[in-house]
Design brief:
The protein is α/β, with parallel strands linked by helices and 527 residues long. The chain has helices at 12-19, 32-38, 55-59, 79-84, 97-113, 115-123, 149-160, 174-177, 188-194, 214-219, 237-246, 284-302, 318-341, 363-374, 387-393, 465-475, 506-513; strands at residues 2-5, 23-26, 44-47, 66-69, 88-91, 141-145, 164-168, 182-184, 197-200, 224-228, 249-254, 273-275, 346-355, 397-403, 411-419, 422-430, 436-441, 444-448, 452-460, 480-487, 493-500, 518-526. The longest helix has 24 residues, at 318-341. The chain starts with a strand and ends with a strand.
């Protein structure tokens, strides 16, 4: 077997491969044209960010079985093209966990003792001890927003510093963290009101953008300190600036910005802001770790051992993939839809397969549904390989049901999420043209296209309802591409599903929800 490494990586990568009996070639400056000519010789490809594994490269990869990105970002690999050829695409998401957790604690301590400001003062020839009076972290409350891998590692280190640690993560069970001395609060507002320090460890999505804004700052203690090593945009930079100027927030450490590098950012003008240039994962050890992990994962993949951190379906070949592809797309969209309708912690998921689809192996379809569900809420890598494990870790029970009855459909997949706040359900099918379609949501017949931006409205059926909604959206220049209307009886409960051309603002959603006959509005996004 032969593996090609096309970027500069620590020597450990080559050593592990060769110790496993795999011949290794290193070409760090190979051009795209050269790569297309050479790739046909290799069983495996290890890259970082410089190499572009385009569809043209993959088309020439007659022997290639696996591609591994030594790092997290995978935008330089055409995953769709690789999957069609049965090539496993992997990354190494765990390599930066420790580094990011350590950077978070470093910033927390630097904020507490005014380290950067004091350092600059001494360099200027001053000796201002009283000015830089600090605060000790022992006994203080650290609030962690997000308890994925990094959040848990931050908690371990904070507890060692004798901090009291609380966390908010609606998608993790109390049992999962019961042995970690982390107190799980019921909602974000409770965490904000209790914490002396707040650290963020969640992904940036539509529902987490500006998660911390003016309202949230008002709920915090006076003199709170904030650390963000997650993603820029989760905290409103304008609201953070105002909170820092007013003294509500006494200090903020910011490793990530909405625009990177930040240009003319007013936060950088404040003395109580500690900015760093996205250093969370940038350590020698982290780089060593991702190189080691890439090599070990490649060895396992080529020797038919456990597949780890795969970003695509490890099918046996292109024929099997083509057969499953429409159903994988459908179930992932079903999971993405359900999670965006949920309020409260998920207790269990019921998935029922009916019709001819039951003749296939349905496990990849269940795992794909879990991918769609978890990808919207976790800050860690989620794929078809680890989705079930991540679900189990969160104490969520999975029930798979096989049925021969399909009612009006050749194939039908039904999924229901059970939460402390009730149930949410969705069903879908794949038509002969291989197009996935959502048939019902919470029992309402909707016949929905799960693509792009979708606005779902729940309320009561009444004459003129659709016209009123259309006017509100039209006034905001929101075009409706497709609309379906579902009701169980005339004048009773109703559901309106609108495929729209753009995200509907929160202000417009609030205006719609203020209508007498509308109870709830959901703005969904299908990636």
């Amino acid at each position: 077997m032969n593996v090609l490494i096309t970027d500069n990586l620590p020597n450990i990568c080559k050593t592990i491969l060769e110790n496993a009996g795999i011949q290794t070639t290193i070409r760090p400056n190979i051009s795209l044209e050269e790569l297309k000519k050479e790739i046909g010789k290799y069983d495996g490809l290890i890259i970082r960010s410089s190499t572009k594994s385009t569809s043209e490269v993959i088309e020439k990869a007659s022997k290639l079985r696996a591609i591994c990105r030594a790092g997290v970002g995978i935008d330089n690999v055409d995953i769709s093209a690789a999957t069609k050829k049965g090539i496993i695409v992997m990354n190494t998401p765990g390599g930066n966990t420790t580094s990011t957790a350590e950077h978070t604690i470093t910033l927390l301590l630097a904020l507490s003792r005014n380290i950067p400001q004091a350092c600059n003062s001494v360099r200027e020839g001053k000796w201002e001890r009283k000015k830089f009076m600090g605060t000790q972290v022992s006994g203080k409350i650290l609030g962690l927003i997000g308890l994925g891998k990094i959040g848990k590692e931050v908690a371990k280190r904070a507890i060692a510093l004798e901090m009291r640690t609380i966390g908010y993560d609606p998608f993790i069970s109390p049992e999962t963290i019961s042995k970690m001395n982390i107190h799980l609060v019921k909602d974000l507002d409770e965490l904000l009101g209790q914490s002396d320090y707040i650290s963020l460890h969640i992904p940036l999505r539509n529902d987490t953008k500006n998660l911390i804004s003016t309202r949230e700052f008002a709920l915090m203690k006076d003199g709170v300190r904030i650390i963000n090593c997650a993603r820029g945009g989760i905290i409103s930079e304008d609201a953070l600036y105002d909170a820092l100027v007013s003294g509500k927030v006494v200090g903020a450490a910011v490793d990530v910005f909405e625009e990177e590098p930040p240009v003319n950012n007013k936060l950088l003008k404040l003395d109580n802001v500690l900015p760093t240039p996205h250093l969370g994962s940038l350590t020698e050890e982290a780089q060593y770790t991702v190189a080691r992990d890439a090599a070990e994962q490649m060895v396992d993949a080529l020797k038919d051992k456990n597949i780890r951190n795969a970003l695509n379906m490890p099918v046996q070949g292109p024929e099997e993939f083509q057969q499953l592809k429409p159903y994988i797309s459908l179930t992932e969209k079903m999971g993405a839809l359900l999670i965006q309708l949920v309020r409260g912690r998920i207790k269990s998921i019921d998935i029922q397969y009916s019709g001819e689809v039951t003749k296939d192996n349905v496990r990849p379809l269940t795992d794909s549904l879990l991918v769609g569900l978890l990808r919207h809420v976790l800050d860690e890598n989620v794929n078809i390989i680890n989705a079930r494990m991540l679900t189990n870790e969160r104490g969520i029970k999975i029930n798979e049901i096989i049925s021969s009855a399909t009612e009006d459909y050749t194939n039908l997949i039904f999924a229901k999420i059970n939460t402390g706040d009730g149930e949410r359900s969705v069903s879908g099918t794949v038509f002969k043209n291989s197009e996935p379609r959502i048939e019902t949501i919470n029992g309402y017949r909707v016949d929905m296209d799960p693509i792009g931006h979708v606005l779902i409205l729940l309320g009561q059926d009444k004459p003129g309802l659709i016209g009123e909604i259309g006017k509100i959206l039209g006034d905001q220049n929101i075009n409706i591409g497709r609309m379906t209307f579902g009701r169980k009886e005339s004048g009773g409960g109703a559901m309106i599903v609108l495929n729209v051309d753009a995200v509907v603002s929160q202000e417009t959603i609030s205006a719609i929800e203020s209508m007498e006959c509308i109870e709830t509005a959901y703005m969904l996004n299908f990636r």
